[in-house]
């Protein structure tokens, strides 16, 4: 897989931020996610934990579900997942289970995340049943991503930094 230039990462992160704003407008955590392969969107995800009353409806999971449906396979090799906030452990597991090749993240999370926690699922190598870990790029449009999270403080969210916790 050929790495995308920084400008392409920013283009897709801007779309994640649009999706995140949509989630916030509906009362959910401001998180948006995309699954991209060869410049084509295979799945988009808008955080919908609150609106769907589904604790698994994180933006990354929603985007992965859409990509799996569209491709007809559980293997998302050759894909990049974009998200404005570091994926939690549940989402990181789904990323690894579907063999996503690259994860591009806007800003880290204060919750147990797939990179920054004591359980860095996105970076673990040698796990039975999983291939090599995805390449991870953290900090794409980080200031904008953090600003969106700060703007949603005071509302109940599952992402601690979105609720000031």
What does it look like?
- With 165 residues, the chain is α/β, with parallel strands linked by helices.
- Helices cover 33% and strands 18% of the residues.
- It has helices at 6-25, 49-52, 59-71, 89-97, 142-150, and strands spanning 32-37, 40-46, 80-85, 102-107, 135-138.
- It has a five-stranded mixed sheet.
- Strand 1 and strand 2 (40-46) form a beta hairpin.
Overall geometry comes to globular
Treating each run of at least 4 consecutive H or I residues as one helix, how many helices? 5
Helix content: 25-40%
Provide the low-confidence segments as ranges.
159-165
Spatial separation of the terminal alpha carbons: 38 Å
What's the helix-strand series? HEEHHEHEEH
Radius of gyration: 14 Å
The major β-sheet equals:
5 strands, mixed
What is the topology, as strand order, of the major beta sheet? Answer: 2-1-3-4-5
Number of strands: 5
Give the class from helix and strand content and strand pairing: alpha/beta
Beta percentage is 15-25%
Name the average pLDDT.
90
Question: What's this, in brief?
Answer:
The chain is of the alpha/beta class and 165 residues long. Helix content is 33%, strand content 18%.
């Amino acid at each position: 897989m050929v790495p995308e230039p920084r400008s392409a990462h920013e283009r897709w992160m801007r779309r994640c931020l649009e999706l995140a704003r949509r989630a916030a407008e509906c009362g959910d955590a401001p998180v948006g996610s995309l699954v991209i392969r060869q410049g084509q969107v295979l799945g988009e995800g808008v955080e919908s934990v609150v609106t769907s009353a589904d604790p698994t409806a994180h933006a990354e999971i929603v985007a992965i579900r859409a990509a799996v449906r569209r491709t007809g396979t559980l293997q998302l090799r050759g894909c990049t997942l974009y998200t404005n906030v570091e994926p939690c452990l549940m989402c990181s597991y789904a990323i690894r289970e579907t063999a996503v090749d690259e994860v591009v993240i806007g800003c880290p999370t204060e919750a147990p995340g797939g990179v920054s926690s004591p359980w860095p699922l996105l970076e673990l190598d040698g796990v039975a049943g999983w291939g090599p870990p995805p390449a991870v790029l953290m900090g794409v449009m980080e200031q904008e991503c953090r600003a969106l999270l700060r703007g949603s403080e005071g509302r109940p969210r599952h992402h601690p930094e979105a609720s000031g916790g």
